[in-house]
Amino acid sequence: MSESSVLTVCLPTATPADQIGAAAAALLATHGITDARLASGHFLTRTRWRAGRLLQPGAGVAAGGPIGLLDLARMRAGLQQRYGDRWQIWQQVVAGSPAARPWWHFYDRYAADPDTYTWEHARHGFASQPRVARMLTYNAHPCRQTDLPTEHLDAFDAGLQAYATYGWLQAVPGGRMLTLDGRLLGPGSSRYSVHLEFLGQANVHLQTLAAGGVLAAFTTG
C-alpha cells in the first residue's frame, strides 16, 4: 500500500472503539467520498494488550484507534529511513544523467492546449528524458530493491535530507487528511512544493490533537 493512497480521518476523543470505522465513513461521505476502505495495517501500535480499542488490530498494526495507542514516532522514523535508503539507490541509478523536468511541467503544457500538445506528447516528452528513462528502466527490473516513483522527481532532486524528511511527513497522514474540524486537506497537484504545503498543514493539525484523539486510515479508488 502506497502512503500516498492513504486518507487519514481525525475523530473526537469520545468516539467509541466499535464506532470508529462507521463514524469516519460518515464524515467522508459528507465530502462525497463513498468508496473508502479501511487501510489495514497503516498504523503501528504501541501495545497488544488494549487491542479492543483499536480499529482492525493485527500483529503490531491497526487501521486506527486512539493516538496514545498508536506509535506515530516509529512510523515516521521508519518511513524516513526507507525514503533515505530509496534516495541513495536513486542517486546511483541516475548518476551522470542530465537534470530532468518533472511530470507537472509536461502536464501543465498539455492542460493549457490539449489539441496541440496531446496527452501522448506529454507522456512521451516526460518519459524520454534520460534521467526518467533510467528510473523507468530500474522500475522494470523484477529484482529491484524498491520502486523509484517518477512523480517524486523534483523531491529526489531536493537532496537526501529533504527526501528523507518528505517520508517522515507522509508517514501518518498519507496522501489526504480529514481534520477534526471537517476540512479535507490534500495536495491537489503533483508539484513537490504543493505536497509540502499540504503535509505541513496535516502534521501541524496532528500536533494539536490530544493523546485520546482518534485516527482512522482509509484507501479510496
TrEMBL record:
Superkingdom of the source species: Bacteria
Record protein name field: Uncharacterized protein
Species per Swiss-Prot/TrEMBL record: Mangrovihabitans endophyticus
